[in-house]
Amino acid sequence: MVLDLWHRATCPSEQPRFTTKAGQHICPVPCSSHPGLGSSLLPARAVHRTWCQPPVTEPRGHEGPVHPQACSPVSLHTRCLLSSSMSPHTHPPSGSLLVSSHPSRRVERGRGEPSGVQENIERFFTRFVEEGKATVRLREPAVDVCLSKANASNLKNFLSAVRLAHQGTDIGALPLSTLVPAKNSEVEKPKTKMIITSRRDYPLTKNFPYSLEHLQASYCKLARIDMRVLCLKKLRKLDLSHNHIKQLPATIGDLICLQELNLHDNHLESFSGALCNSTLQKSLQFLDLSQNKIKALPIQFCQLRELVNLKLDDNELIRLPFKIGQLGHLRFLSAARNKLPFLPSDFRKLCLENLDLFGNPFEQPNPLVPNIQLKIPLTLLECAARATINYRIPYGCHLLPSHLCEDLEVAKTCQCGSACLSSFIQITVTMNLHHVAHTVVLVDNMGGTEAPIICYFCSLDCYSQFLDRYLQSNG
After folding, report:
1. Residue 20, CB half-sphere, CA atoms under 13 Å: how many?
2. pLDDT for 20 beyond 60
3. Which domain holds residue 80?
4. Is the Cα torsion angle 89, 91, 92, 94 positive or negative in sign?
5. Residues 126 and 47 in one domain
6. Is residue 441 part of a domain?
7. Whole-structure pTM value
8. Contact 341, 318 (CB under 8 A)
9. Which intervals of the chain are annotated as region Disordered (predicted)?
């Protein structure tokens, strides 16, 4: 049997708040009007227990309800405890609901206090009792106890007993059968995985189970990410491949447990820097952005330092992240069939197991034709920037304007190890990709495994030294 508790006074009557099956619980919808639950999706636990009612002598002046531990748990003869608290053996916290058939006395009804059944039932709804469904409307608290998926005969007996308890019938006269513990096979476990592969199967009116850890919603023609998905705080794997999503909301970064994000074959044109600064920095390990329309990734992308597997195939990328070498955990990188002319200088810091850069229009490197951006003498800004980085002087937006901080984040590194900001010499040289990856997919149809990579020099002296070594090795 499933019990649904609906708040009539504070919540829309058509929206279930708690659902229990064989003592298990589901709380699919956030409800800010519930005291103690707040607006977030919290796992509310509903406990269904029964006790017989032995004679209990209360101390004089005792004002509270009789504690369930004072009764022995044998059958459904007497008292029904229905609670959103964490345990039936503790005093119910704020926001919990207790319903008990206690004809011997009328308990006080306050926030978090038990409510007696006797003279507290406003109405019974039994039109669909033959289908195993019924609703009992209480006066205080203002809730509807909705029963469903019940055996019709057992449900009729239960409703009969509740009516008698409401009328004040003695406990021993209630016609209830012995409570039989539920079998493990009858207990519905929280759902952790859901796979949807067509728009027809996509839930439009029902919420996703809050317990989901793996959600796949592919081929559903989604134009945006469903905000209900962003409430699944236990989600570890999210697969939204083969849809029409154009933009990612920043709130996707609130999925603190998210480890895998698959956005293959969508219409994305960018990847938000806000996502890179979110909690995904500590959780995201797999990211598939392949077959989209992304031209560049933000500077902050390399803050996702837990990434192990990154797929960027079939986009319109004209460059890889400048500081890609900061992805120290990255082991699998594929960026095939993009528009990459060369690789960033930081690329040589990677340590990969598998690398695929096939089908990119790499330029032919020519170290003898440098791109000279040197400014002599160096500007004050350039000198200050180099000193800040070379001497590792702390900086931040609380000390410097934000645009200067951004410039410092993308400072180049010379072959000598010194930094340079906007005054440098740039060339491209050939790098064998086996220097950074154990397994390399051929770069072109000619069987090559080499690609051009950018090199920077902070001065003419550094470039001259490199040029001497290059000419000697190729002389």
Report:
1. 19
2. no
3. 2-52+71-186
4. negative
5. yes
6. no
7. 0.65
8. yes
9. 83-114
